[in-house]
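[audit] Reproducing an earlier prediction to check determinism. Same input, same settings, fresh worker. If the tokens differ from the archived copy the diff job will pick it up downstream; this log only records the rerun itself.
[audit] input (336 residues):
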Amino acid sequence: MLQKLRPKVIIIFAFLYCGTIFSQDNQAIAVTRDLVKPPNLKKGDTIIILSPAGKVSDKKSVDAGIELANHWGLVVFFGNHLLAQDHTFAGTDAERIEDLQKALDNPSIKAIWCARGGYGAVRIIDKLNFDRFLDQPKWIIGYSDITVLHNKVHELGYETIHGQMPLTLTLEDPVQRESIVTLHKALFGKKLQYKIPSSEFNRKGETIGQLVGGNLSIVYSMLGSETSLNMNGKILFIEDVGEALYHIDRMMISLKRANYFKGCKGLIVGDFRLKKNEGNSFGKTLEDIVLEAVADYDFPVVFNFPAGHIEDNRALILGAYVDLKVGNKKSKISFR
């Protein structure tokens, strides 16, 4: 693609791609590039369910996802190794790479729906080739460990969806209804907007930025790698599960020390289900930890957004621009 461009165009593209230009006094100025939105899904499109991380015990585990996709008029295929098992993983690294690579390369596949999270995506991320994906992008959907894929695809310049996965779906659960509705909206190009009650711990304000992030443990583990996000002009979303308060503090302070919040435009805190039987011997609450870590910055902060390892896991279009308004009684998040 680049070889077809004239030299001057290549130079301009390189500057924009790096996300920085320089003024006459050599001071770096952040440039936020628009991420590409994959084509909206439509009835008759083909999607694939696969697992780049944790094992899927049997096909029944993803039946709810199949039923939902069929209800939406989608054709569902499966990764060849979806039910493979290699201890905790959904097959060997090579098998998971094969499934994901074929899905990335296949132009007839319009969305990759990750069956579950767990652990394992980081083991294969650097062995994947995204060249054909860049020519014909498609939605990648999931959360938790799938944050590895989100971060990689965002750095390549494309939007993804943080949302429900087949293994966590219970279609008859009324609590999940809204999360299912919002996932449909995100995939089919409908307007996505949230109004939630404001927490007393929120930091009020208004801002605009690209929404990125995902699971805090994964965001933290990506520091120093090529999948560590450039946070200039971004609104960060974080969630986690099963962590002790002191470890959440460690991760937040590490992000601060890595200048992760410098240039950040806002912070949205999703659900944090603490480690079971976790007492507060640490002496700080989740809200204390978060607000202390971002105390040097003045961007708005929202707590208790309904997304993460919970039944009501609302869909978020990561990489999209959002308007964030944090008020006394309500907080509003509108996707552009």
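[audit] rerun output stored. Observation attached for the diff report: Confidence is low (pLDDT under 50) at residues 1-31.
[audit] end
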